[in-house]
Write a structure and sequence with these properties.
Number of domains: 1
Order of helices and strands: EEHHEEHHEEHEEHH
CATH superfamily: Transcriptional regulator MraZ domain
CATH architecture: 3-Layer(aba) Sandwich
Largest sheet: 6 strands, antiparallel
Number of helices: 7
Radius of gyration: 17 Å
Structural class: alpha+beta
Shape: globular
Strand content: 15-25%
Distance between the termini: 30 Å
CATH class: Alpha Beta
CATH topology: Chemotaxis protein chec
Length: 160
C-alpha cells in the first residue's frame, strides 16, 4: 500500500489515534493484514507499518538478505533492540489504534497521560509516521527546501 499526504489529528486521553479515512478506505485486509505494527523512532516519530508490509520487510533480514540463526553481534543487537520495541496493534471497530504508552513517551508525544496531543500523520511511502504537529509545521519549509539535496545525496550513494 502506498501512503502519501498528511492529516492533522489528535491522540485522545486513552492514547488512541484515529487512522485517517483516506488510509482506512484504501485498506484491503487480504493484502494489508488486520493490524498495524508500531515502532518508535528517534526524532519524535512513531512509524506505523501494515501487518503485511512489516512482516515482509522483517523476513528479508538485514541489508536485504535472509534472516539467519547466527547473526553477527551488531545485527543481533539491532534485531533485539528494534523488534523488542515493535508492537502489533489491531484497530478497533471505529478505526482507532491504541498507541503504546512507552512508544508515546519515547517519541515525546504525550505518553504520560496527556489528553489531546496534536499530531500529524504523514504518508511515507510504505508506512505512516506520527509526529508532533507544531514541530512538523515549523520545519515544513526547511524540509521542502532540502528535497533536491536529499535526492542528490541518495543518487550519489546509488552510484557507489
Amino acid at each position: 500500500m502506498l501512503f502519501t499526504g498528511h492529516s492533522e489529528l489528535t491522540i485522545d486521553a486513552k492514547q488512541r489515534l484515529q487512522i485517517p479515512a483516506k488510509y482506512r478506505n484504501a485498506w484491503d485486509e487480504a493484502r494489508d493484514g488486520k493490524a498495524w505494527y508500531c515502532v518508535p523512532w528517534p526524532g519524535g516519530i512513531l512509524r506505523l507499518y501494515t501487518e503485511a508490509c512489516f512482516e515482509g520487510l522483517a523476513s528479508r533480514g538485514a541489508a536485504g538478505g535472509s534472516p539467519t540463526l547466527t547473526p553477527d553481534q551488531d545485527e543481533a543487537d539491532l534485531e533485539a533492540d528494534f523488534f523488542s520495541l515493535a508492537e502489533r496493534i489491531e484497530p478497533d471497530s471505529a478505526g482507532r489504534i491504541a498507541l503504546p504508552r512507552q512508544h508515546l513517551e519515547l517519541a515525546g508525544l504525550g505518553g504520560s497521560g496527556a489528553s489531546g496531543t496534536e499530531v500529524v500523520v504523514i504518508g511515507a511511502r510504505n508506512r505512516l509516521e506520527i509526529r508532533e504537529r507544531a514541530a512538523w509545521q515549523q520545519t515544513l519549509s526547511q524540509r521542502f527546501a532540502r528535497l533536491p539535496s536529499l535526492v542528490a545525496k541518495i543518487e550519489t550513494r546509488k552510484d557507489d
